[in-house]
Design a protein that fits this description.
Blueprint lengths: L16 H4 L6 H23 L6 H18 L3 H4 L4 H21 L2 H8 L10 H9 L2 H6 L2 H16 L2 H6 L3 H23 L10 H24 L19 H15 L1 H33 L2 H17 L1
Amino acid sequence: MDHGGHGMMMDLPPFTVARGLEFTGEPFFLVGCLLALALYGWGVVRLRRRGDAWPVGRTVGFVVGVLTVALVMCTALNDYGMVLFSVHMVQHMVISMLSPILLLLGAPVTLTLRALPSAGRGRKGPRELLVALLHSRYMRVITHPAFTIPLFIASLYALYFTPLFDFLMGSKVGHIAMMVHFLAVGLVFFWPIMGVDPGPHRPGYVMRMLELFAGMPFHAFFGIALMMASAPMVETYADPPASLQVSALSDQSAAGGIAWAFSEIPSVIVLVALVFQWYVSEQRTARRRDRRADRDGDQELAAYNAYLASLRTREQ
């Protein structure tokens, strides 16, 4: 099985972490990762040259996010993922659930809006077009939980349990398109939940947590279904090459275990990020309240005390 010209997959030796992490430089994702780093770096440099600060933590988050994409797509993991369901599942989980979170923590949309120059009154440049897109009906639809949660779930069940997966795995273009889809779905799903970049759908912190937990259990159920299956469920991985020294069922069970266990990782990262954002927001609100009290002599507290005094007078 050559899998659409991805190389001599039949000659791959048994998988080890060292072999999987060998750099192969898949052209599409390598160029994409380098371009993303270059554009982000340009934005940061532009801000600093004009004297504006940009948090180092955001830069680190974005860079690490890009590196996770390169890790699973520009190494031999990409080759092994064509013939081993377990390795493919590592790619899927990282590129759809870990990479998007790290990229979004880098606030690339906010950086772009701050770095791009304004076109001036009555004119439309790249910055104005991006603002219009962020406020468009299209963005309101694709960032709404009624769209993002079903899309997130369908990327598992409607893909792996239908002939569509085997069709996409049959060619290099199809495989790349599928991985790009995983990344895009992850970005769309986590974007409103993370709440770092501006967007049309910005629920409160409790609703964001509910959106997060609405999608995560389906990954666990998917993993359990793979682990409990008594026969190969995906044709592409039904007959792994003998050189890999692994059976289809054991490989499938490992893939299910990865999908099940990995669903917890993004949940923890996002929850930590949300709690931190919530804390910072409350602190900012408290500081604004204190400043307002200093300006008006804390009239709000005085009015409340007067209200309590009036209640006591009525009781007497």
